[in-house]
What does this fold into?
Amino acid sequence: MTFLNSLAPGRVFCLYSLTVLLTTLVACSKPDAPQEPLRSVKLITVASSDLSAEGVYSAEVRARVESRLGFRVGGKLVQRPAEPGQRVVAGQLLALVDAQDFQLAAQAAQAQVSAAQSQRDLAAAEFKRFEALKAQNFISGAELERREASLKAADAALNQAKAQAQAQGNQAGYARLTASHSGVVTAVEAEVGQVVAAGQPVLRLAHDGPRDAVFAVSESAIMGLKTSQVMQATVLSTGQTVQGKVRELAAMADPVTRTYLVKLALDAGAHLPLGASLNVRTAGLPGSAAKAMVLPTSALRQDAQGTAVWVLDEATMTVNSQVVQLGPVSGNDVAVVSGLTPGQKVVSAGVHVLSPGQKVTVYGAVPSMAPAATTAPAR
It folds into this structure.
């Protein structure tokens, strides 16, 4: 008789249940956790260097003097020979309004001059005649004084008529809009057939002469700029490098963009066309630091204690967290005020997948061959 047969049925059932339970527990046990992979990191050696905050701004070449020209009288625009982009010389006709009414007014004023001249001649003749009568005592002195007053009034009326005729003649001349200086027509703001008012801009004229590079900067950048500061600019179309000095800094921000306008006086030998695009490089902006430890922003991370970096322990090839205090930021670089010393090696990429004390390898380094593991013989 076997061992199971020698047992009571109840005991056989209990033994069978215990066997099934042990088998289930063995099957449900968790496997050993896999070993954490050895991560490869990029390192940067901390060193002191100068951090110069700078910016690159898009600028446009403009004339230093640009006038908005308009008629000194109102009227209907009948001619406008000038076109945008056209080069003109001083005195050249740019636009013309209908001058017929002004010419008629000038003719009427000239007729008044003729009438006043006749009245003055008549008063002068009468005064001469009464002066002769007074010499013969045929009239009183009071009568002669009245004739003299009439002559003076006629003289005044004649001068007034001449002045009015001159003014009306000027009005007729103001119907012609001519170029005040040689330059380039940059914009046209009125078309033929339009009725324009006196002083209304008709076109814009950029005067020949010095050129400026005009660009806008933020409030923080304007604080670091000063007049006569030298800057470099690159012409986008040709790659030519030109130099200029800051000529004017806006004292007030633009109400819409909240930026400040900067005018850079270009060298006279640049010979750049109006409207050319430039990239102006501004250095020495707020945020510059001298002899600072500079790190890329990719090396930074946030933990419970603040901004930190991973520092490599070369003896154990593990990384440890180090809290740092930051300074000025320039582009993708940031100055470290405290927390690091020159010569330390800091992880510069992949900082969010590391943990304290984790073993790492240097990216790009040749890995060392570890000796093969030996298996102990079974006894």
